[in-house]
Amino acid sequence: MNKAVVVFSGGQDSTTCLIYALRKYKQVHCITFDYGQRHREEIAIARELTLKLGVIHKVMDVGLLNELTVSSLTRSDIPVPEQISDEDSDVPNTFVPGRNILFLTLASIYAYQIDARTIITGVCETDFSGYPDCRNEFVLALNNALSLGLGRTIDIETPLMNLNKAETWAMADHYNSFELIKDQTLTCYNGIKGAGCGNCPSCFLRKRGLDEYNNEKCLVMKSFREKAKFL
Questions:
Q1: Which residues pair with 155 in a beta bridge?
Q2: Structure confidence by residue, pLDDT tens digits, 94-122
Q3: Which whole-number Å values give the CA distances from 16 to 97, 157, 230, in the listed order?
Q4: Distance CA 68, CA 63 (A)
């Protein structure tokens, strides 16, 4: 059967990927990871969205990640920084080391068990927070390792990899899901649904992309469609 597993947080990017997956695959499973994250409200949002969209959903406890990593998303005594700058070169303290390595590995094991060959994740290297595990080079390397280790071809799809945040909003609009993504997802590191707190790096990227899309809708949609001919 034509199946896919979506690594799903209930945020803008993963929900956009889920909408994409529902139009491409006959059966879609979502997997959400509970690692004791600061913005753990996203787990409830993920449950709400998968229920609304009629998707098979699994929440997996990976609390060990919280014990191993030092990040403002896993430590309540480390403040989340306000916004980001395009000049920033250091990896921010919101980076959770090993998170995507673990998530994609576990998602692949889950896919193996349900006989799915595709993993979909919303990572992006075009307009992101500087996380090394969001780069295409990383995904390709891990994809090869997972296929070798499982003895089965696994395809990690990254529909947003080459899109900036404005183009990701265009993708949501393209699939008639703009309002759903805008109002019902949780991207904020401080756990506020929709527009979020407005101060954290995640909210900054989300709002900047939304403003660009709203101001230049036709141009951004054209750019998205040129980049996303595979969709």
A1: 118
A2: 676 778 999 999 999 999 999 999 999 99
A3: 24, 13, 15
A4: 9
Q: Which residues, 6 or more positions from 14, have their beta carbon under 8 angstroms from its beta carbon?
A: 6, 7, 8, 121, 122
C-alpha 220: how far from its chain's center? 21
Q: Tell me how far apart the alpha carbons of residues 20 and 50 are, in angstroms, rounded to a whole number.
A: 14
Q: Is the CB of residue 160 less than 8 Å from the CB of residue 124? A: yes
Residue type at position 90: D
pTM metric for this prediction? 0.90
Q: How many CB atoms lie within 10 A of CB 113?
A: 9
Question: Helices 41-53 & 12-24, crossing angle to 10 degrees?
Answer: 20
The amino acid at residue 6 is: V
Supply the Cα-derived Rg of the chain in whole angstroms. Answer: 17
pLDDT at position 126 over 90 = no
Residue 147 to residue 136: CA distance in whole angstroms: 16
Beta strand 155-157 with 56-61 is unpaired
